[in-house]
Amino acid sequence: MDTHATVPGAQAVARAAALLRLVTAAGDVGVATAELARQAELTRPTTHRLLTALRHEGLVDQDDRTGSWMPGPELFLMGNVAAARYDITEIARDIVRSLSVRTEESAFLSVRRGDETVCLVNEEGSFPIRSFVLHEGKRFPLGVASAGLAILAFLPPHDVDAYFERHPELSDRYGAAHGETRMRARLRETKERGYSLNPGLIVEGSYGIGAAVFTREGHPQWALSLNGVEFRFGPDRLPELGRTLLAHAHQLTTRIASSRR
Question: Taking the model in full, what pTM does it have?
Answer without folding.
Answer: 0.69
